[in-house]
Amino acid sequence: MKRLRQDKRGVSNVIVVMLSLVLVVIIVGNVILWSYEMNQLDWERIQERIALTNAEQMIRSTWFPSGCEYTTNSGNRVNRTYTDTWAVNGSYETFKENERESQDSYGLDIEGGFTVDLSTYPREYTESAEIVVRYKTSDTLERWFIKAYEWTWKTYSDVGFNTTAGDSPATEFKYYAVNLTTVWQDYVQTNGTIRMKFCDANPDANQTTVDIDFIGVRLVIEGAKLSLRNDGSVTCHVVAVWILNATWHERYTADLFFNAGISTDYIRADIPLPEGKYITKVVTERGNIALFAKN
Amino acid sequence: MARRLRFIRDRRAITPVLSNLLLTVIAVAAMAIATTATYVITTNLRETMSERVIIEDIWFSSSTGNIRVCLHNVGKVSIHVSQVYVNHTSRFYDSLPVLEISTHAWLNVSCSWATGSLYYVDIVTSRGTHVGGYYEAP
Fold first, then answer.
1. What is the mean pLDDT of chain B?
2. What is the predicted ipTM?
3. Burial level of A255, CB count in 10 A (0-12/13-18/19+)?
4. CB contacts, 8 Å: B21 with chain A
5. What is the C-alpha separation between A221 and A125, in angstroms, rounded?
6. CB contact under 8 A, B46 and A34
7. A64-222 architecture in CATH?
8. Can you tell me the distance from the alpha carbon of A234 to that of B109, in angstroms, rounded to the nearest whole number?
9. Most buried one in A16, B75, B119, B122, CB count within 10 A?
């Protein structure tokens, strides 16, 4: 110990080595490790391969089917479940009228709840909503109506619909559609819930059987549907969508993640596509750009 | 007491103490300068390495008659545009604030253009990164 303390050159060497170590740490931390980090970034950017395969105008949202079994205010559910009304495929749910106020008088009144996706289709970019029923009845003597729950007045109504006359049924499947026009917001709650009712006009003497193949709600929009494909090996994060034509270049902020090897449709209700020729571009967070030209 | 008096009267002991002290101060100062210089140099190097900027869009605007360039900072450090060249000639542009990480901004370049002509647009950052390419005016 005494020898070490007297050996001034040894102490000096230790100090020099320690301070040099500090310099080495700074250089390694700032340059070499950071170089590795940026190489990683560039490598990921090279690995990212995104393709924009199509861009088309979208004037209707996807269908939103019933989220739960229909409630029968009058009448009975005879066969199958509400999931059989999710698609037009010949698999249907059957209801039957039952007696109402007086004997020998039969009616059917069913209610269903639907939830539209307002995160994908924001209210401010939605123009209207539509309700469609595909059904057939055992008799064709009475008219059938679609009504929706008016959240302000807390009652079922068809005020403001494009048609309020009802529909004349058939013994073969047919479509009955109503458009909620500009008053659609009165019928859609802020969380996207819409309740609808399907009922006959008045009880009659015939006990009708009603087969429902499809009931759905969709929104009327003026947006765009971009078909994207991730051919790379890393997850893509789309941060911007561009719509370019001869007179205008518009950038829309986006936030879409999709995994490697996945094809997806990116729907934007707030992006109107122009008429004629245009180019659509998507930009990823890593800086890659894919484009689709519509001629 | 006698030893203490001897130490005070011993003038020869002052010189080694002063020389050691002086050497220590010089050594510490030199290392401080070396450390600071290393830090500054490597930090600049790191920032230069971290710059990644892309041109998202170039718009030959017929309404303004200028070229509008949309830049997107996809790197890991904020950037500042210091020069814009069109066909290797320096052009005036609207001063762009510092472009932070993961942000985009439009750059209005004062340059008249003609339909069908080819332009080489080169944007240079304050750290010397170049981004650009050939663009044909529509």
1. 88
2. 0.80
3. exposed
4. none
5. 7
6. yes
7. Sandwich (2.60)
8. 36
9. B75
